[in-house]
Give the backbone structure.
Amino acid sequence: MAPTTMMLLLFACAKASKLSPPAQLRAYEWPEQYHAVVVSNLTKRGGRLQVIEMYYDWPRGHGINIVREQLGGVLYNVEWTNGSSFLFDPAASTCRSFHFAVGILPPDWIAHGAVYHGRDTADGFDCHVWSNFLFQRYYADIATGRPVRWIFNGITRHVLLFQKGRVINDSSKWQAPPYCFSNTTSGDVASAPAPR
Ligand SMILES: *[C@@H]1O[C@H](CO)[C@@H](O)[C@H](O)[C@H]1NC(C)=O
Ligand SMILES: *[C@@H]1O[C@H](CO)[C@@H](O)[C@H](O)[C@H]1NC(C)=O
Ligand SMILES: *[C@@H]1O[C@H](CO)[C@@H](O)[C@H](O)[C@H]1NC(C)=O
Ligand SMILES: *[C@@H]1O[C@H](CO)[C@@H](O)[C@H](O)[C@H]1NC(C)=O
């Protein structure tokens, strides 16, 4: 076999393996409950640096996100499995509600219709890359299965901390405050700063 043919074959094989998803998708499932800290840079969009504390609680059917803007305010976002989402500012007692067709993602969402995009390096981690209707790209660390980075609504989030099982048990923290139900502006879903 001529060396060039050999090289072409090797190249073809490398390409094929690059695009075959991992056999064990379970390694990339989310735990049913987790706490994550993610950071993003919104300055190109006229925003600021942002740190979000996320508490994902699948058994209880909700997620809470505490959004901190650099040297700015703190917003709370509660989203439910039924697609209802409230974004409120306790300091100003204002609230916006959103409705998403699909609520929070199940832990095994990758096994249900996610498209595999091969391997890539994200923030220095060797990752498998997927997308779905929510994430334009989702990067999971091959070594540990944890998320490293995702792109939602054009915004890139970098995962700084990912802790299995740590959630807020105090149910009062999960409730949208009363003013969300009495004086709520319905937000535009497309512009929702939903921190997923
Ligand atoms: C955030 O993005 C802006 C614009 O791309 C860049 O100038 C700035 O250095 C970035 N900040 C950080 C902390 O990466
Ligand atoms: C979704 O569930 C939450 C919490 O139980 C509730 O407040 C909200 O009204 C529900 N939304 C819809 C559209 O049923
Ligand atoms: C929440 O409750 C679970 C189970 O009861 C417990 O293991 C966990 O430590 C609690 N988490 C916090 C932050 O209190
Ligand atoms: C409702 O919210 C608007 C704008 O956030 C505020 O100006 C108004 O005073 C609020 N009304 C009540 C009854 O809280």
Observations:
- The helical segments are 3-18, 179-182.
